[in-house]
Structures are given as C-alpha cells and as structure tokens.
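Hey, resending since the last one bounced:
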Amino acid sequence: MEVIADFQTWMLSIRRPQTARNRVHYARQLMKWCDNDRLSIFDLSAKQISQWLLSVGQSPATRKNALDAINVFYKWAVMSRYTTTNPAAEIPKIMVPQGMPNPTPDDVLQQGIDRCESVQDLLMLLFASYGGLRVGEIALLHSHDIHDGQVRVQGKGGKIRYIPLHPTIRDILHQANIDGWLFPSTRNPSGHYLPDSIAQRIRKHLLPGKWSAHSLRHRFATEFYHKNLNILALRELLGHATVSSTMIYTRVSSDALAPQVAAIQDQGAARRWSVIKTDPQ
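The structure tokens again:
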C-alpha cells in the first residue's frame, strides 16, 4: 500500500481533505480488488477497470465518481513514474441522468430545529437550509468569515464566495458572540468539525428519515429560485462552476404544474366517456 500512501500525500497537498479522501478511497478499493485477483494495479486494462466499476455500486453517479478518482490516480502515477499509461482514460465518460431537486420539507426542517441541543446544531441546519452551504463549507467557517452581514465561504477548489446572511443566522451569531471556529472540535487536530461529522450529525441526530444536509441545500436552492427566478444569482450562491449544475433547481414540481395541465380544454372526452361507460354494447 506504499503507492496509495504516496498518492494520499500528494492529494492532500493539492486538494481539500474531503476531496483527497474520496480519491484515495477509490484508489484503495481498486488496489484491494487487484490483490484479491492477484493482479497488479499498473498492469490493468481498460476492460478490467470497467469490470471493477461494476462492483463499486449501481448508481451511475457512484461509478462516475469512482472513474474520476481512478483517472486522477493514474495521471498521478504516470507523473510519478510508477507507470507509463493511464488505462482509465480509454473508458468513455459515464453519463449521469440529471436528477430532480429533493428539498427537505417544512415539517422535517421544523423537527430538526426542535431537536437542536446547541447553537452549533442550530447553525449547522441554518447554514445549509438558509444559506445553501455544503457540509465541507460549513465545517470551515470561522468567526473571521462573518463580516458586514455576509459570510465568506471557501468552496470547492478553494474558490471564495460571499453569501448574505439570513437575518435569523445573523441574529444568532450576534447573540452567541462566537470567537473562533463556528464548529469547534477537540477531537480533530484542525480544531474544527470534519465535514463527515457535520453530515452525520444532521442525518442521524437532527433530521428524521432519509433527509440530509444535502437535501437542506436543495431546499435553499429551490426556495430561492421559486422566489427570484434568477439562475445566475443562484449559481453564484451555490458556488457551482457551471449553470448546468444549477439547472436542476429550475425544474418545477408536478404539483405546481397541475393547474396548468388541468387548464387544457377538454374537447368532449369526458362527455364521450359518460356514454361509453353506460353503453352495455
């Protein structure tokens, strides 16, 4: 596993810890798969990697994530002269169907708020649902990031954006008077919560059922778009690299479309049905 350790060191030097863990996880999974079949990870063909991809999960998104990670691994291996080829580059891009927004319902968020036991619990929920932040962004928040009614957010790739604070968050932060990490932790050497810890806290302790921090982010995005219809502003708030990622939140729910569908004029089908159902033939 020396190769994986070297890859992990390199990833941690250029990417955020959460991204590094994801890439290393799949590289380690592929290494174990090779060991089980007595194969060398640097002698694999594109066909063999495709076979491994079938084992990581059924979801196209999961397989795409795994393939992306292995592509990065082999690019690093070529650069580090562990090998001369990247067999993963021969595999076609995995297409992921665009999903529907999955916003946390009002009553679920209310239950989560009622379960909060600390200001950190409450802020976790609010930064996700009233600010649209990812768990990785929430974990890094510091009191120095709060200024003039805005929060400075370090997003994917280290990109910085500024999000207006919702009045409720602003009032809580003012009254709590937090100095330092907003989500401090003595267990983590960095001094703050890990993103995974925040995700687990929200999913397992605060929100009931299937709901998660990501569904709270969906809630924020859906609420904002329905009120403003400004896709470029929403893209900026969410920290998306492209508008295509933001477009998922512009999809209108079937409930909202129902009145428009019902307004289509009936051309006598209902009248004809009344005849058909009473005609014994």
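Residues 2-90 form a domain with the DNA polymerase; domain 1 fold (CATH 1.10.150.130).

Sorry for the duplicate.
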